[in-house]
Queue: 3 jobs
Job 1
Amino acid sequence: MTNIEHIWAEHLRDAPVTAQSAEMIFKTMMRRDPQTDFIAYVLAENFTVERLETMLRDSPEYLSQGRVMTDSSIHGTAARLIYMPAARLVYCPIAKVANTSIKTWALRLNGIDAKSSDNVHMILDNGQVKLQSRFWSYAFKTTLEEESTWDHVALLRDPYERLVSCYCDKFGRTRNHPMTVKFHTAPVYRYFNGGKEPNAAFVERGITFRQFCQYINHTKRDVQDSHWAPQWTYLQNARFNKLFAIENIGDFEKYVLKRLPKEMRHIRLSAENVAQKQHQNVTKDLSDVRPVDWLEQGNPPAEAFLTPDIRQFIENYYSLDFDLYEKARATKI
């Protein structure tokens, strides 16, 4: 089993520097060998990896002659890229695109007995298991980028399906959950409630899919929640050379399994929570129906919410997502 925190322990940002890691960081960032007394100094002062990289990055020499680093962000989507060393992959999690299932698989490949029912997002975000990019040395990640055996991979979803799925989940099935309101939907409710915080009755009544689209259309892109932010925004900080469509998640699994050591190929992706496209007959327009009414139908097909004007809005707003999705659908292994 490959445990990332064992094989890469000295490259954690909060790890104490060693002579070897200090030399690697200095050479990578400054493009020259460090002097012996410099290494002795950072060891004597008990520098961490983060402290050393910060000091070098702020130095006049680095600012004028230092290497332009491949990865210099510990914020946003770039900070949450998942490293899967056993498969030599950097995976980009995208909300509402098999996110939970693949994160669970990544944990299991790292020796953690995780299940889809576990809060894998919290396990990763809190750093209980340090698979996310933000926990690792900039210099180390830059050296990995130079290795041709590593791939950057992501899954993409039909933008219509993803937006409807997000609405049905956050504004339908789980709308009354306190965490849903606190972390995801409160700004939307405030928009339709005169700027005031929504009470329980307002949340229970909910909003229609048309209103949801109106909110997205009339507010700034940078305030959108990650669950309905365009998929391309997740991919803008790295070059992804393998894109898969969510309906071809079986091909994604085969691709990862081929890259794993033989002794790990029994650890399979469990994708029971991955929503598949539904092709039910649409008998009623649900775009202006509140969740309390359409929830009686279970999981309505996306087409039930997609009137011509709403389709046009989605095609325009998520235009780059459609291009990326078509590219992902064409991926062959």
Job 2
Amino acid sequence: MGLKKMSAMIFIITSILTSCSFENSKIIKIPMLVYQQNDSVKKEAILGSWDINQSKINLDKGMYTFTSGLGEPLVWYGKTLILQKNVNILDKVDVNYKLEQGDIISTGTEQSYFFNDFTCLGEISDEKFEYILNFNNKEYKVDLKNNDNFKNKSVFLANGETLKNGKIIRLVFSAFYQDKQESEIILLDYDLNKDEYKVKSFSIDKLPSGDNTISPSDSILDENKLYIYKNKKIGFIDLDKEEFIELSKISEDVHSFMTEKFKNPHVERKVVPVGKIEDTLIFIDTTLYIDDKTSGMLVYAYSQEEDPIGKILIEGQRIYLFDKNNIEVSSSEFPYIRVNGRSFSFPTS
């Protein structure tokens, strides 16, 4: 792609301007990555931001390139991105960002996970049921084989985070009884100082299962809240109160916004929580259906009070931006590609 053509494309995106979209003096700029096809093989991740006040997208520098595999970050929190080994980090990366690389392990019995501040390697087989936590270059083994909370269940790691300034590592699992139509949440808090853990489990009806089982890529863990999409409802599991709490205003807004126009006849709709950046919640829906040859994607942003503050619609090769009142304020060409089904990547926090 020529420099002039590339510059023109970037100019189109960065020129999406309107008058201030909502009366709020707080500047809300959500960091993001978009993905560009440089040639027949090489793809590039470009750093940008969604200026919600001005209803525009600004694109900045290229961060890294990749040719194969999943090019999105393994985890992105704050100014730190952990990337796969297959990417090539560019020389002139924004100095405010720290880019690291990690190895993915995915076999029949082992699976690696990346979280804010720590990594986790799960090994589940007939002989083992354990997780190896790596925090500050020190390993901690969590052996769960004889723990009653995990017996006779199909268990999946939903998410994890550090608590109390890194003294506690929290893991949250979804679990399904092998002989019953019941589902549970299992909460494990590992004390790094005492080298011991506490675990509890509680029932939550109709947790997502199968291909939609809760995973770190489609949930957000924020201390005692696990944000998920469950039974066509957006909300969070309160890990203290042991119940699912629907964010009813968000659910209503999501399901009333262009629902019929983009109803997908092939797959069930799925609205995924992807980030909680300060007081802003970010959700995406990659299941939009334009026609048999054209796909779409919606990005939703909401305040802590569940009020809509902006939306992005990708329809084929066009981008549309909406204000807090769901009014379209701009549109332009969007000459970028999807990676792992998504047009954008956002930090989780």
Job 3
Amino acid sequence: MNEENKSIKGTKSYIVETLFIAVVMLLAVLLIILFGASTGYAIAVLGIVWLLMMRSKRKKGITDWQENTKRIIIFVLAAGLMNLFPFLSMAKTGGWRYPFERSYVEMRHTSTLPEWFPKELPDSAKNCRMDYTPSIMQGTGFFTAGFECSDEECAKWEEFGKERAKYIIPLEEYQTDESFDPAGYETELAVKTDTSGSHVEVGKMSAIWDGNESGAKIYVINTNLDLNHPHNEAVIVGNGRVQLFAE
């Protein structure tokens, strides 16, 4: 292959590489805007560094198509690994983000969210806070969203909790070591088994609770009573605030 053909091929691969990284950068921006995801920032920084490297190579007259192709492959692998590692975090606020974050959690989580999790927050929702930790190997991830809402909406969730809860725990009584002995807090829906040594993990459930704890209750919809590999579904209701939780 003569030098002219090499140069043409190198230029074409440079353009393809630039367009490819531009598309990935656009996806990074969407991750940042819609989810507030830290992964989006990391991919954006990687893309900027790569673009600077490409510009530097171009200025020096280095347009080898094989080198450009190698950079594309490395970029794809690096961006993919960034999305797999557990440092992902998402925006803590912004109720309008809830549908997007819920969909993202459903896509990444090892198990689907409970069917009772709403697709959207109620119209009266405000001061929304969310938190998410992805499942990592055998570790249990969780997703939670809390918001202030109208008295009517609170009453609806309170009634929902009373109808479906297996355990009802006053929020003020939870233990700070992130576990709670459920004995004595069962409802008629609880499985009749020996609960000695069993725990309901409530620390993470209440971690982003912004409301007054007095009078608020944790309605545990489902639990495996396992502290080491917990799987819990719950809703906390009280004092004009609702919080949804699943792990």
